[in-house]
Design brief:
With 214 residues, this protein is of the alpha+beta class. The protein is built from eight helices and eight strands. It binds zinc ion. Zinc ion (ZN) binds next to β4 and α3.
């Protein structure tokens, strides 16, 4: 017995994230035009946050069949990410997937409500250099030492924090306005929040990393 999603739920879930994969490190577009002008391509799927059947990943026996096939238990992903999360249900827990879904929907509404910045990017960077020179110096040093690193967290120096070893750290102690500065970077779409636990976590865009690396 599988508790599958009704078709209309799949459609709504896809639209709620603007037809993009909900994995914050992916955000791949999942639909577009097919050669046949009457058709569209779709490479997105609704994944179950907790599985549709007892042998499936993240199965939660506490849910009723209705809860299992309800919109709350679905997340829109590209086919690759759907396969990824079902291959390692411990790393990609229900809590993580719920956080992905929340963030993807938050981003979609933000993008929907805002109009693209018409300010030339060079002006943006000049402005940032004035607003947060010390943070940019530190980020520049970090990127030159770790050219492949894009993820970073915001910490206080007295917090016990177990690093995954592949993220950069910025400290509230070193930068009193750290959160405001990061929010400005986020407003300019240069960083994206990907928090999934009690530590604020962000990812830099390639454009920003390239700017810092130059
Ligand atoms: Zn994806």
């Amino acid at each position: 017995m599988r508790d599958d999603f009704p078709v209309n739920i799949k459609d709504v879930l896809a639209k709620r994230v603007g037809f993009r994969c909900s994995n914050p490190s992916c955000r791949q577009l999942t639909s577009g035009p097919q050669t046949d002008p009457s058709k569209a391509i779709n490479v997105g799927v609704v994944a179950h946050i907790t599985a549709a059947s007892p042998q499936g990943p993240r199965y939660d026996p506490a849910l009723t069949p209705d809860e299992r096939s309800s919109i709350n238990n679905g997340i829109w992903l590209c086919q690759t990410c759907a396969k990824l999360v079902d291959n390692d249900p411990i790393r990609y827990s229900a809590v993580t997937l719920e956080a992905w879904k929340r963030e993807a929907e938050k981003e979609a509404i933000k993008e929907l409500e805002s109009r693209r910045h018409r300010i030339p990017k060079s002006d943006v960077f000049t402005r940032l250099e004035r607003l947060m020179p010390l943070l940019l110096i530190e980020m520049r040093q970090d990127i030159s030492q770790h050219p492949l690193c894009r993820e970073f967290v915001l910490l206080k120096s007295n917090w016990a924090y177990w690093s995954k070893g592949n993220e950069l750290c910025y400290y509230f102690d070193d930068h009193p306005d750290l959160l405001s500065q990061i929010q400005i970077l986020e407003n300019y779409s240069l960083v994206r929040e990907i928090t999934y636990n009690n530590v604020q976590r962000y990812i830099m865009t390639e454009e920003f990393a390239q700017y810092l690396g130059d």
